[in-house]
């Protein structure tokens, strides 16, 4: 089932999320719904807060971008209860967008290497070192489960320049091909 994407301004996007366990209700169905929603929305990542759930879960599939970023070959994962345990000092700046903030794309500087510990969809622990765009995708989604958005990394001036666009998004004045949910 395709779920609505919660837009900028909805309080769930600013919550620090809760860990979940194998007994989380309808977990397998939620994962399937998140994949379906992400692909329908043409995203490469989707975090649970973006579908209204304040839990530590996100899915990523970077394979559609493999032509531009070869390191994304086969990069499809479910991240449950992740923790970024190490970040490189070196950073890389690249453009980012977000399904919850449609129509806005900005350059964001992030560490170009991370070490992340997480559980997969079977709740088995994994530890993975990620580089370049794979690291960027995971950091972007990880921010969602920490209540942060990519626009939080922008300068105060840049944020002021985007204020009217962000206000429009928060009330649903967007042109997207996917279901949305706004704050009431």
From TrEMBL:
One of its GO terms (biological process) is translation. This is Peptide deformylase. Binds 1 Fe(2+) ion. InterPro entries: Peptide_deformylase (IPR023635), Peptide_deformylase_sf (IPR036821). Removes the formyl group from the N-terminal Met of newly synthesized proteins. Requires at least a dipeptide for an efficient rate of reaction. N-terminal L-methionine is a prerequisite for activity but the enzyme has broad specificity at other positions. Its cofactor is Fe(2+). The active site is at 141. Its EC number is 3.5.1.88. Keywords: Hydrolase, Iron, Metal-binding, Protein biosynthesis. The gene is def. It is an enzyme of class 3 (hydrolase). It comes from Xiashengella succiniciproducens.
């Amino acid at each position: 089932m395709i779920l609505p994407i919660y837009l900028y301004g909805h309080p769930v996007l600013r919550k620090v999320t809760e860990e979940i366990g194998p007994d989380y209700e309808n977990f397998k169905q939620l994962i399937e719904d998140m994949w379906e929603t992400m692909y329908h929305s043409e995203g490469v990542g989707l975090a649970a807060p973006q579908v209204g759930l304040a839990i530590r879960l996100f899915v990523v599939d970077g394979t559609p971008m493999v032509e531009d970023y070869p390191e994304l070959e086969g990069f499809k994962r479910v991240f449950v209860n992740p923790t970024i345990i190490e970040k490189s000092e070196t950073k890389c700046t690249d453009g980012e967008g977000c399904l919850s903030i449609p129509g806005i794309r900005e350059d964001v500087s992030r560490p170009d290497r991370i070490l992340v510990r997480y559980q997969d969809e079977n709740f088995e622990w994994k530890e993975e070192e990620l580089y370049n765009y794979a690291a960027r995708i995971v950091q972007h989604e990880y921010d969602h489960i920490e209540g942060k958005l990519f626009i939080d990394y922008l300068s105060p001036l840049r944020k002021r320049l985007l204020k009217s666009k962000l206000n429009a998004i928060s009330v649903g004045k967007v042109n997207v091909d996917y279901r949305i949910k706004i704050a009431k």
